[in-house]
Amino acid sequence: MVCIGNICRSPMAEYILKNKIKHKQLNWHIASAGVENYHIGEGAYPIALKVAASYNIDMQSHRASHFTQNDFDKYDKIYAFADDVYHRIIAQIRNEKDKLKVDYFLNEANPSSNASVTDPWYHDEDMYHAVFQQIDEVCDIILEKYKD
Ligand code: 4NP
User: Fold this and answer.
1) pLDDT tens across 75-101, in order?
2) Ligand 1 centre distance from Cα of residue 122 (Å)
């Protein structure tokens, strides 16, 4: 799960999906990162933390990290949360195999839409709720699609 700062959108997705697979026998390693290094080592943004907690998603242990080329080796799927993020990831691919791993997160709900999850950073708490709910729906789709 990759966004810009790794303090709002991608941590929500990481912790939502981790929560959904908690009682399932799935050997998934789910993580998140940002393409910018502004917030590395910081916890989730307080509004994101609070909104996630209101849905019983605990993101207290999150620490922001930076997307690196090693992530192409560690993960089978790399979800970009926005158009700019997608292009920043694609700029780091080493080969076609890397490229095939990268997709827009929202393409799991609307294939080929190449749509972005709204960056809630400049918005109020209501937007964090909307973003949370959108991410939650897509995580359900991902779980259904890849669980078997
Ligand atoms: P995120 O939100 O990419 O969902 O974590 C942002 C967080 C911080 C910034 C931008 C987006 N920033 O510019 O610092």
Assistant:
1) 999 999 999 999 999 999 999 999 999
2) 9
Domains and CATH numbers, the chain: 2-146 (3.40.50.2300)
Query: Cβ of 28: how many Cβ atoms within 10 Å?
Result: 16
Does the pTM surpass 0.70? The reply is yes
CA 81 – ligand 1 centroid, Å: 11
Burial of 88 (0-12, 13-18, 19+ CB in 10 A): middle
Q: Which residues line ligand 1 (CB under 6 A)?
A: 3-9, 34, 38, 119, 121
Q: Report the separation in Å between the CA atom of 24 and the middle of ligand 1, taken as the mean of its atom positions.
A: 31
Nearest residue to 133 (alpha-carbon basis) of 101, 109, 104: 109
Reported as a single tens digit per residue, the pLDDT across 101-119 is 999 999 999 999 999 999 9
Token pair 């990831």: residue:
89
Q: Which atom of ligand 1 is nearest to the CA of 11?
A: 5
